[in-house]
Design goal:
Blueprint: H1 2-10, H2 14-26, H3 29-33, E1 43-46, H4 48-51, H5 57-69, E2 79-81, E3 87-90, E4 96-98, H6 105-114, E5 118-123, H7 140-150, E6 154-158, H8 162-167, H9 172-193, E7 198-202, E8 220-222, H10 231-239, E9 253-255, H11 268-280, E10 285-287, H12 296-302, H13 305-311, E11 320-325, E12 328-334, E13 340-346, E14 352-357, E15 366-371, E16 376-382, E17 384-389, E18 394-400
Parallel strand pairs: 1-2, 1-10, 2-5, 5-6, 6-7, 7-8, 8-9
Antiparallel strand pairs: 3-4, 11-12, 12-13, 13-18, 14-17, 15-16, 15-18
Helix pairs in contact: 5-6, 7-9, 10-11, 11-12, 11-13
The structure holds alpha-D-galactopyranose (GLA).
Alpha-D-galactopyranose binds next to loops.
Amino acid sequence: MPLTFRCRRLSTHRPFVWAALLALSLWSPSLAQAPSVASTPPMGWNSWNHFAGKIDDATVRAQADAMISSGMRDVGYIYVNIDDTWEAERDSQGIIHANSKFPDMKALADYAHGKGLKLGIYSSPGPKTCAGFAGSYGHEEQDAQTYAAWGIDYLKYDLCSFGKIMGASGSPQAAHKLMIDAYTKMHQALLKTGRPIVFSLCQYGADAVWRWGASVGGNTWRTTGDISDKYSSMTEIGFGQAGLAKFAGPGHWNDPDMLEVGNGGMNLEEYRTHMSLWAMLAAPLLAGNDMSTMKPETVALLTNREVIAIDQDRLGRQANRVRAEGTQEIWARPLADGSKAVGVFNRFDWPQTIEINFRELGFKGSAKVRDIWAAKDLGTMSGNYSAHVPGHGVVLLRVSE
Ligand code: GLA
């Protein structure tokens, strides 16, 4: 209706109409897609960390429902992503079908869309996915068209068996080129559908993907192997992101893997560290738990608006490590309003007092400090601030001039 109205008005301004028609004729899906997805790190949920192969249509619907009833959608979680094990075989035309766990993928996408959510799916550039199901090798365009017809909004594209093809290529250079070509091919296939689909690269950080992930159309790229629900795994990955900040920005993000918050393998302080570190890293926030059975403290960790505001800050500047001394780490990232988010992390088992210095953080001696998890303004301070940080915990601050 508004479009018809606008067209009618335009018909009285002929030169303008011709300019508009020219612009339309030059329009192509590839031009249209780029800015529309992942201008901030994608937020949502993924089935793998909690459900792995035990995922089906009913479970995905229940997760979508829980994303809404828990308040997660309202703070920004919108992608409901099905990971591996949804795939059946191809038919005689080569078209991929979902297996019996997902009787009607289009209906499932409609269900998600009807609730203001989006649906994501998973495949591999190789002939087989990591769990041994059918991958997209040789069927990239067909698969992209199928995903678009279903109404898919996000594709995680996981190297898996393509590694074998690369291994047979004879040299690291040839293997690298094969990988670049494979990701580019699916990127082009997605663009051709004309549907905005987040393209999420997963190849575990091989060949310094952060240096070329954006050039093959990646909106996010995994920088590491798989996370597990342990403090050691989470911190090895999270603190291991040092140095990668300069490669991230709106539309193209480092991905240190999905969240484990709420899965039970870490204590509250450890999960608080997980959430804080991922927000500092401008990481995609893909919950990896069962959202239908969350304890209140899990909901509180996942839905803290001030923490999410750091992750989603429109400047899109990932945190750098300011200082690491033994078990103490300080990370900072500039935010759009001129303030800085500062993460003070204690990797020791016991509580520690950790000193931060405002000059070291780029302030002129004194600064206004807010403790985000405590939701408390601490006032203006000069020189140093001593943060009391629980074992394996964090104090997350917003600091301004
Ligand atoms: C790989 C990925 C995981 C998950 C599994 C599924 O291990 O890194 O995130 O997608 O495959 O098989």
